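for the writeup, i need someone to sanity check this before i put it in the appendix. the sequnce is what the collaborator sent (i think, or maybe the updated version? ugh). structure was predicted straight from it, no edits. if anything looks off just tell me and ill rerun, i have time this weekend
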Amino acid sequence: MCRWHKRLCCFTLTLTAMFALAWGDGPADNQFDTVRRVPKLGVEVSPADREELEAGLKVLGDQIAKLKETEDDEPESTRSRGEGLRLALPDVEIFYRAVDQALRYQEFFDVKEIPVAKKLLEIGKERATQLTMGQAPWTKATGLVVLGYRSKIDQTVQPYGLIIPETYDPQPSHRYRLDLWFHGRGETLSEVNFIQQRMTNKGEFTPPETLVLHPYGRYCNANKFAGEIDTFEALENAQRRYRIDNEKIAVRGFSMGGAACWQFAVHYPGRWFAANPGAGFSETPDFLKVFQKETLQPTWFEQKLWRWYDCTGYAANLAFLPTVAYSGEIDSQKQAADMMEAALKAEKLPLIHIIGPMTAHKIHADSKIEIERYLSRWARLGAPQELDSPLPKDGEWETIEQFQTYTLRYNKSRWITIHRMKEHWEPARIVVQTKAEKNGLTELRVITKNVDAFELRFADDNGADDTILHPITVDQTKLTAAMSRGRNPKSLYFYRDGEDWQSHSDTIFESGLHKRHGLQGPIDDAFLDAFIFVKPTMKGLSPEVDKWVQAEFDHAVTHWRQQMRGDARIKLDTEITKEDMEDANVVFWGDPRSNDALIQVFDELPVSWDLKENVVHAGEQKFDAAFHMPIMIYPNPLNPKRYLVLNSSFTYREYDYLNNARQTPKLPDWAIIDVRTPPNSRWPGKIVAADFFDEEWKLKPAKK
């Protein structure tokens, strides 16, 4: 432990207690017209402290600038391997950004954080000096390590923490188990506080011979949306640096982190060898009624969009993912596991649920021991990634995989991938069963619901190079599929042809405009990948519209930083290029009069403007363009592999920051806003029409 780490330790207990109390204010946070600020404004920094921090930032900033010049001179071979400065420079930049953000935006929440920031700058400068000499000793350290990566979403550096076991050895062929640990709610969990915590606090669990990865998760969103992608980007960064066994990665967390664990378990069941959620929430409506004492009055599309993160609807996906839930006996957040237990019971699946006796919102010491016994046992088995020669009893059908989803954002289990659905936000399900025949062949039966195309991926079978014809029945269609027994896994694709199914060795159903993974909406989905705000430079169709656009643009930029802890990339409409549209989703702000880039494509959009009639139209519905604006997501006509968004960032607002269960999408694929109603903490204005597009991105008939 370096000298700075030791000095930081004294601050740990204060922060731990502060974060534990920061879950939320219950019924006091149910008034959308009196919403408190999240995060709150911090303390004032004295002139002397500000001067010292700014001086430290200047020195570190100059060091980083010189390192970036050196980075540009690195050999291409080093860059392509992800080695050298390209990988290590964010480990320095996270210290600069953490302190700069806290100072710039008044996010020191306690005067005790100011000396911590000074120490972080010293650590950053020390790392920068070492990196200048071609050294990065922190990447070879054991114990508590803080690292960084540059996010594909907005190009900002983001921190994450690792615990490296003292016995870690990078040389032998042995690979290590890794546990992802999701942190609890912390409204004051700035980058300064997160980095400090990850340098001084080992957390709840440190299993032997195991790396533990603590993602920042983009602040306080239960690892949803950008926080979800943060987890995978941090994991990918760690996998490039350390010898991690990809079949021995677990998801774990407590409180808000337990909620995160539930959603990663059910949405990505094929990625983990085990899941260990504790407390938190597992769905939105019942939790808000029980914990928040909130009277819910959702729109019909809000209710549908709860299905993005409501884990109860995905409970079937835990059939082949070992899961041990934990709750305190007298913790109100035991509700989360109770809801999942009921959902699993409906699927005829059990749930291991360890309950800490007479325990409130913490993990009982005896329960920790019991939980670790399960995780250690399951870690020895690992997580199989493809079907590996199931051998049921002769003549009996056995379910070997099942997967359910409501959106193609989550479309994959261990070896099932759903490529097309009949209708989004309704349950799409695949059950695969197998039966051993007397002739030695294995027959497969696939039962589908709300699915139009899917893929099965088969593992190699004892290294033989021959091909065997296997009978497969998909619903009522009998097929014969050629399955290779070679060394490489083989994918078989199935697509619906009327009422029948066809099989193919390639994705021939991918042509044409239709909803697919990563291009399925709703509006919030655009912000799980690289995006650029395209700002208008001219006057629009009316002063009322221009005023609304400017206010919502400013709101989007401010709250992307406040809530997602990044800087939105912004270009003027005169600056956006074809290359930009190849690399990122584009968010056009304004209308065809104000935004020069929008002029190229607006007449190809299903919800758009008729400039001759001066109306905004959505099919047969028409609205006065002087007082109405469309919000929409759609495949970009100039690059259909990326999104085009109109006039929106993520769609939940200030009221929803107060409880993580509220942080769900609020608008579907498109909406019309009457700008004469001012925006508030819930809506960008009055919603006069809204709906989803169909599976071919076409307008549905207007709802009566």
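Residues 47-72 form the longest helix (26 residues). The chain is about 30% helix and 25% strand.
thx in advance!!
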